[in-house]
Amino acid sequence: MHEFDARTPTTTHEVALDCLRAGVESVRPERVVRDAVALDGDTLTVAETTYDLTEFDRILVVGGGKAGDGVADALEALLGDRIDDGVVVTPEPGDGNRIRRLPGDHPVPSDRGVESTRRLIDLVSDLDERTLVLVAVTGGASAILPAPATGVSLSDLRETTQLLLESGAEIDDLNAVRKHLSTLKGGGIARLAAPATVVGLVLSDVVGNDLGVIASGPTAPDETTFDDALDVLDRFDLDVPRSVRTRLARGSAGEVPETPKPGDSVFDRVTNHVLADAFTALDAARTVARDSGYDPLILSSRVRGEAREAAKTHVAVAEEVRATGNPLEAPAVILSGGECTVTVRGDGQGGPNLEFCLEAAPDLPDGTVLASIDSDGKDGGTDVAGALVDAETVERREANASLARNDALPVLRDADALVETGPTGTNVNDLRVLVVEPAEFC
């Protein structure tokens, strides 16, 4: 199991951490692929779809993201020398026998990511119908696999990405822009690889599992347009580089081809399979909570919006459990997942999960513990996964002052409330655990 480093002074804290650990372990790519992909002779089964390998002369593995290395490991273990070649781009590439592991960076794209992605593009170009392409589509690939479109430099793409991240834009808006500034996003891999058979192995980090949004949809039709991308820039009043706005305006005017849309022939031989998502992790956490003697409830795997507002809702749920026994009686564990955002106005250190915990902590009822992490092990731009808090962690005045500066990390570190995991090798968004003990327990 992956190491989780956090202070757990009570059994309540331990239960919260156990739930988080189980959730992350359940969506480790090696485990997910092992459970969903099988080989029987010449028949490859992915979920409930079968592929006759005798129909193909070559098998390639490409893709990337935070879980890309683990997907590659699992496929090499399953298929061995049936794999002819491969390129998978990840933040911390390991070693492979048949699949090249190349470096990329997250959340802002890098030069090395561009070079690695160029190798992938070379591999999937000019394929024929007797090629099978297995594509690892995992969270973070939007930044890790950058392929700036003609006329857009990497520095311009980086600046635009940073502005979008700081604006509080949700992932759908962020990706609507990125898909129209890239060669691979928005169905780009499908278009390059056609007429090969393309199989997307998807680990979703997107609320609702929209295939067009996960990793910016490299193997999925794009329902957004150049006009949608321009609308995002206008709604958030972003002063992006001139080359970015020029490309989007040219696309809006019909001077640049749109991304492939639903019904495009490039998708005739493409199938995508969502193998794991936030609910997968929450379901595993629910089992641990029940086995520990708590009544568990999955509140939602689709929580989104400002982290501080979501925190207030979770506090309200804890208060309701203690006051009325609704929606369930204590001892209870309430679980949620999703993707919260932070509108950055200060220059401190933090991320959505840290701000979520810092906002909630001072208002938590006694006997209640709240934990929130990013399942990839890095919350926002920090090197910590998130935090584990209770009513004693921090006073409201200190919390407010830190939140005003978007500086949640230092105060939570001083309170010894951080959860540190290192990179987990997977990503299915944020995971939250709220443990509520009965009043007589406190």
Describe what this molecule looks like in 3D.
This protein has helices at residues 11-26, 29-36, 68-79, 111-124, 141-144, 154-167, 171-179, 188-193, 226-235, 242-252, 278-291, 307-324, 352-360, 396-404, 408-414; strands spanning 37-40, 43-46, 49-52, 58-64, 85-90, 100-103, 131-138, 197-203, 270-276, 295-306, 332-341, 368-374, 386-389, 418-419, 430-436. It is an alpha/beta fold. The mean pLDDT is 96. The chain folds into 2 domains: 11-24 and 278-441, glycerate kinase, domain 1 (3-Layer(aba) Sandwich); 29-147 and 182-224 and 259-276, Rossmann fold, CATH 3.40.50.10180. Helix 7 crosses helix 9 (226-235) and helix 9 (226-235) packs across helix 10 (242-252). It has a 6-stranded parallel β-sheet, with helices on both faces. The chain has a 6-stranded mixed β-sheet with strand order 10-11-15-12-13-14, with helices on both faces. A 3-stranded antiparallel β-sheet has the order 1-2-3. Residues 94-113 are annotated as: Disordered. Residues 16-248 form the MOFRL-associated domain. InterPro entries: GK-like_C_sf, GK_N_sf, MOFRL, MOFRL_assoc_dom, MOFRL_protein. It comes from Haloferax elongans ATCC BAA-1513. This is Hydroxypyruvate reductase, glycerate kinase.
